[in-house]
């Protein structure tokens, strides 16, 4: 009973392959035509080519959390429409192989979850008991991963322009919290409001809000140049 | 020379071409669009151009004024990036279980 309660309270019911305390080993003989194989191929492409992912992986390595694909990523089937998650208990990023079918979507999910992993690595984030911490990481992930780009919002039929990015970040952070925790919408909104200004302005490790691949390239350049930068301030 | 022996010589925090590319990027329609979409105001790009000119000026003449202007400008940029009260406490070390192999996190049953 306790395990079921824990599963529901912390959102593990969305990831049925990931029961707390159990770690499923991937079967050796995976067919080339499964979602799992496609997920792994897209993941490889994302970590090699996305400037968002490359910057985050570099930053995590510098912080002592070098990411190993086989250890820290897991392609699994998930419930509903969820695309991914970060499991702090096992230090793993879950990618929902049944819900990610395009490379640009994979790039965005990898970036989003790496931001959670980065926060876990560099700060004492109490994922399970502190809703402010959870909200903060969700705000940062929605803000910095490209989740709320103009084109992504238009594709969701959310047509807004002036300052719409911030509305989107609030909304998506709220949805992410409500999906994995049993609290009321009003309570979740209050928590997001409390931490929004602080967390929206925390752009680590990008140094800016990367709205496009071009921005991310510039951010990656700045990150690679950081030793020279801080030495000459 | 007022530099200590062995001290690394100062140079601009960024390569001069980087200041110019940031200026061009800042002035682009795409950036204007994204900035307005995010903040509801138009971006201000003049500082990047000034920094570029100060950078080139320092390269030519090695003047203190250009150097100090560049340092001041970059320190303001750093301060702007840190202009928030963190919600959480930063770690001194990475999480201890980050690299622990998955099968070793729980006691073995058999």
Automatic annotation (TrEMBL), chain A:
Q: Which UniProt keywords apply?
A: Hydrolase, Metal-binding, Metalloprotease, Protease
Q: Which Gene Ontology MF annotations are present?
A: metal ion binding; metalloendopeptidase activity
Which EC number(s) are documented for this chain? 3.4.24.-
Task: Supply the InterPro entries for this chain.
Answer: Peptidase_M76_ATP23 (IPR019165)
For biological process, the GO terms are: mitochondrial protein processing; mitochondrial proton-transporting ATP synthase complex assembly
- UniProt keyword Hydrolase, yes or no: yes
Alphabetical list of Pfam families matching this protein: Peptidase_M76
Q: Keyword Metal-binding on this protein?
A: yes
Q: Name one GO cellular component term.
A: mitochondrion
Return the similarity comment: Belongs to the peptidase M76 family.
Tell me the protein's name. Mitochondrial inner membrane protease ATP23
Q: Which organism is it from?
A: Pundamilia nyererei
Phylogenetic classification of the source organism: Eukaryota, Metazoa, Chordata, Craniata, Vertebrata
From TrEMBL, chain B:
Q: Which gene encodes it?
A: LOC102202499
Q: What name does UniProt use for this protein?
A: Synaptic plasticity regulator PANTS
Instruction: Give the UniProt entry's GO cellular component terms.
Output: synaptic cleft
> What species is this protein from?
Pundamilia nyererei
One Pfam family in the UniProt entry = PANTS-like
The top of its lineage is: Eukaryota, Metazoa, Chordata, Craniata, Vertebrata
Q: Where in the cell is it found?
A: Synaptic cleft
- Of which family is this protein a member? Belongs to the UPF0545 family.
């Amino acid at each position: 009973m306790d395990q079921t309660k824990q599963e529901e309270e912390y959102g593990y019911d969305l990831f049925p392959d990931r029961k707390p305390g159990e770690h499923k080993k991937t079967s050796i003989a995976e067919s080339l035509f499964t979602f799992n194989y496609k997920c792994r191929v897209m993941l490889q492409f994302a970590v090699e080519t996305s400037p968002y992912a490359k910057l985050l992986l570099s930053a995590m390595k510098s912080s002592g959390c070098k990411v190993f694909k086989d250890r820290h990523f897991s392609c699994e089937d998930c419930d509903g429409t969820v695309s991914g998650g970060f499991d702090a208990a096992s230090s793993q990023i879950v990618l929902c192989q049944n819900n990610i079918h395009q490379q640009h979507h994979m790039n965005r999910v990898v970036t989003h979850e790496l931001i959670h992993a980065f926060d876990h690595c560099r700060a004492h984030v109490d994922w399970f008991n502190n809703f402010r911490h959870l909200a903060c990481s969700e705000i940062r992930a929605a803000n910095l991963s490209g989740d709320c780009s103009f084109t992504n919002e238009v594709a969701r039929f959310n047509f807004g322009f002036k300052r719409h990015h911030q509305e989107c970040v609030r909304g998506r952070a709220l949805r992410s919290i409500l999906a994995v925790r049993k609290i009321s919408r009003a309570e979740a909104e209050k928590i997001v409001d409390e931490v929004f200004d602080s967390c929206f302005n925390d752009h680590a490790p990008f140094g800016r809000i990367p709205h496009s691949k071009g921005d991310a390239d510039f951010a990656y350049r700045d990150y690679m140049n950081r030793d020279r930068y801080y030495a000459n301030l | 020379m007022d530099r200590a022996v062995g001290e690394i010589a100062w140079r601009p925090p960024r390569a001069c071409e980087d200041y110019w590319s940031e200026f061009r990027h800042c002035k682009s329609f795409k950036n204007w669009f994204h900035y307005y979409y995010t903040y509801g105001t138009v971006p201000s790009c003049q500082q990047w151009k000034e920094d570029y000119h100060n950078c080139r000026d320092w390269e030519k003449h090695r003047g203190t004024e250009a150097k100090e202007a560049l340092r001041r400008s970059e320190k303001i940029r750093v301060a702007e990036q840190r202009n928030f009260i963190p919600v959480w406490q930063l770690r001194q070390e990475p999480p201890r279980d980050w690299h622990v192999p998955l099968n070793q996190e729980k006691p073995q049953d058999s």
